[in-house]
Write a structure and sequence with these properties.
The protein is an alpha+beta fold and about 180 residues long. The protein has one domain (about 1-180). The protein has 5 helices and 6 strands, in the order αββββαββααα. It has helices at about 10-25, 95-100, 140-145, 150-160, 170-180; strands at about 35-40, 45-50, 55-60, 65-70, 115-120, 125-130. A 6-stranded antiparallel sheet has the order 1-2-3-4-5-6.
Length: about 180
């Protein structure tokens, strides 16, 4: 996962850059994939990614600590794919309470989850709950997390693959400038 290669601070700044550039691509808010909201609640920033196909990521940021909740609507781990609707066992086990509590806001649909990872500011690696997959279920994290653009080149790839129409509102120089300003 590319997220292992960058710090939480770098991830936060890259999410801000992606959201700022996405605003420039489209005046229509419903067509944007990336958002970033500072101080969603006091001291908590929220970044989101939605691909328009029912898949999404919510990133909860407090200082340099980050929790990422993802939902792949086609995953076998989806609550909708269970015989009895419910979050996969262990999904949120051990998650930092101050970050997890933010997901209780109905806008984040805490039960719409196929993976949840977090990394506190003093940790080197990402953690996750005690989820166990018995039949090689795919939680969608590998492909969905790859949608998070952490570099100008990754953002350019996203724009080229997601926006079929002309996106000349952004130059390569502008994309690099926005990422450089955030970093």
């Amino acid at each position: 996962m590319e997220l292992n290669k960058i710090s939480n601070k770098e991830l936060k700044l890259a999410l801000k850059a992606s959201a700022a550039l996405d605003i420039e691509i489209s005046d229509d808010e419903y067509l944007r994939c990336f958002t970033y909201t500072e101080n969603w609640v006091a001291g908590i920033d929220i970044a989101t990614y939605e691909n328009g196909g029912g898949d999404n990521i919510v990133v909860v940021i407090k200082g340099e600590s980050i929790l990422i909740k993802g939902f792949d609507h086609e995953s076998e781990v989806s609550p909708h794919a269970q015989e009895e609707y419910g979050v996969w066992p262990g999904m949120y086990e051990g998650a930092p309470t101050e970050l997890l509590e933010v997901l209780n806001d109905e806008v984040f649909e805490i039960e719409e989850v196929t993976f949840c990872i977090w990394r506190l500011d003093n940790e080197a690696t990402w953690s996750q709950g005690a989820v166990e997959f018995t039949n090689d279920e795919d939680d969608g994290s590998s492909w969905l997390l790859s949608a998070i653009t952490t570099t100008p080149s990754a953002f350019i790839e996203y724009v080229e693959s997601y926006h079929d129409s002309d996106f000349n509102l952004l130059t390569l120089e502008k994309i690099h400038d926005v990422f450089a300003a955030q970093m």
